[in-house]
Amino acid sequence: MIDHPRIPLAGVIGSPVAHSRSPVLHGHWLRRHGIAGHYIPMDVAQSDLRQVLSALPRAGFVGCNVTIPHKESVLGLADMVTDRAALIGAANTLIFRKDGRIHADNTDGYGFIANLRQSVPDWAPARGPAAVLGAGGAARAVIASLLEVGAPEIRIANRTRARAEALRSEFGAKIIVHDWVQAGNMLEGAVTVVNTTALGMVGKPDFRVPLDALSPQAVVSDLVYTPLRTRFLDEAAEIGCATVDGLGMLLHQAAPAFERWFGVRPEVDQATRDAVLAA
Ligand code: NAP
Predict the structure, then answer these.
(1) Which of 125, 164, 187, 189 would staple 213 via disulfide (CB 3.0–4.6 Å)?
(2) The architecture CATH gives domain 9-106+249-277
(3) Distance 178 CA to ligand 1 centre (A)
């Protein structure tokens, strides 16, 4: 039995993970708080997931992040799943408890809301409809969190309409599904507009939804953060909207996980952004 103090370890499990900014982010916070811990990327195949998860706590890991393609399957391997992770149908954060149990949570929705609140302090999501482009994993977290902060109606358009319809069945009557080809129309009167598709990301096609119906009062957010300023955000800013990039969501979703693993709540500030952008 090991009874001496161990260096706390955490990391991100996915495949691929080489592109992840999380090691730089958590490394920055570990240094800032003088914590003698480490956070590493771990490329794990689906077939090895169960075995890796059971071995990590024994090697000194206090938890880990989970990314594509394991976000859904870890729910079945965890001993406890938070309500929000169950609602979203995916986990991004695992906590390895001292009693040996694995706790699964999803902080993506929290990160999305915290980022908008920090970037646009007078954002009032309950004041009108939200329009969400996309219906993938990130959209689920965004929709769950928008409902939680009181969005009265959430309009969704997705290239594959069936995925948007599935979200309506799960999240209920506040969800209104629109055709992808008419996505521009659903922006009218929306107070919150979010791109959760991969469009506009480096290596993906451009985001080409017409923004003529967008009100200058809308708060517009893009989950894509490579590049940081997407064409969608630039066009919305030209209309006069407050715009919020996706990097802040990545930073904010990580803060509660860092706190659970290492015992300190890290601040998301300009120095944090700069550290991640410089990497
Ligand atoms: P996902 O589950 O694979 O969903 C991808 C979404 O993009 C789907 O709605 C998909 O539509 C749509 N899409 C992809 N290619 C398209 C195209 N050519 N035309 C129209 N729609 C297209 O992925 P995800 O996990 O939700 O991630 C989506 C984006 O959010 C990614 O760029 C990811 O990097 C970003 N993200 C950012 C954060 C953050 O912290 N900022 C967190 C999570 C995700 P179909 O259903 O029709 O395929």
Answers:
(1) 187
(2) 3-Layer(aba) Sandwich (3.40)
(3) 17
